[in-house]
């Protein structure tokens, strides 16, 4: 496996590439052009500039997270073909600089959703929190909370311009069921996967977060059965998964180590994150240590290790520690993710030794 780190780009992240170089074992940067909205053209010179910078610091730029999918594609509107052409153009350009994996999601309107970006843990750190009952609120109230809470940082998927069109978007999604969303995803994949096969770029869909429908919108990548259905839409080694333990984790009936074992050959990118789920269904993001939450991180990593996983892996959201609150992107501080890297590498190195019989 290759340990990576999500970085939001120069002047767009509280963390620099020089910081990341000092975390043991991190060899790849997961990047994107974060100022691009879904459907925008990615210019070759911008792509070249970022990947040159990443390489100049000794990292690989093999994984892009994300290239966002326009809602017209998810909705299956006649305008989707133009947006799919633009998406294909981006895949082709990214392949030219050596990108191997593109992470994306197919969630209607909203990206990951939380009710509180800075919920305090008993130890005084704070983290992203989801209160089940608060989600019945008006989605506009929710959007405002997330945008305001993020301060000066723009939140991918929660761009104010998009949120201003919420009424329009909700109307457009009226009548869009799970089956229709699957159909529209299949149409998109049938157009892009042949391009990916030619270019050597794997598409890796990210599960829905949280793993259940919200605001009456369908969500289709949220359990073992949904993943199995997704993989059958287009059967290709280039149609794969970003397996995110933190997205599947809040539904305790998701047996994540079993999911990893079953679909491992289709997992291009592993997101490791821990969540602590409360009896009432609320959940908070916890340290990567398995004992601090409900995700058995050891068993997940063992599932990857047993199958000699050679894909990309990264620590996902961490808590905000040691004064980071509001000085970093929510969930993307330095310290807790760095601790997460060390926890994961500790487990991985031990598993290596055990396998070698040492
Ligand atoms: Mn994730």
TrEMBL record:
- What EC class does the entry list? lyase
Keyword Iron attached: yes
Q: Which GO terms describe its molecular function?
A: ferrous iron binding; manganese ion binding; mannonate dehydratase activity
- Pathway noted in the entry: Carbohydrate metabolism; pentose and glucuronate interconversion
Q: Which cofactor does it need?
A: Fe(2+); Mn(2+)
Q: Which UniProt keywords apply?
A: Iron, Lyase, Manganese
EC no. given is: 4.2.1.8
| Swiss-Prot/TrEMBL catalytic activity | D-mannonate = 2-dehydro-3-deoxy-D-gluconate + H2O
Please provide an example of a Pfam family that matches this protein in its UniProt record.
Answer: UxuA
Give the UniProt record's GO annotations in the biological process aspect: D-glucuronate catabolic process
What function is annotated for this protein? Catalyzes the dehydration of D-mannonate.
Similarity comment = Belongs to the mannonate dehydratase family.
State the PANTHER family in the record. Answer: MANNONATE DEHYDRATASE
What's the name of the protein?
Mannonate dehydratase
Q: Which organism is it from?
A: Thiospirochaeta perfilievii
Q: What is the lineage of its organism?
A: Bacteria, Pseudomonadati, Spirochaetota, Spirochaetia, Spirochaetales
Give the encoding gene's name.
uxuA
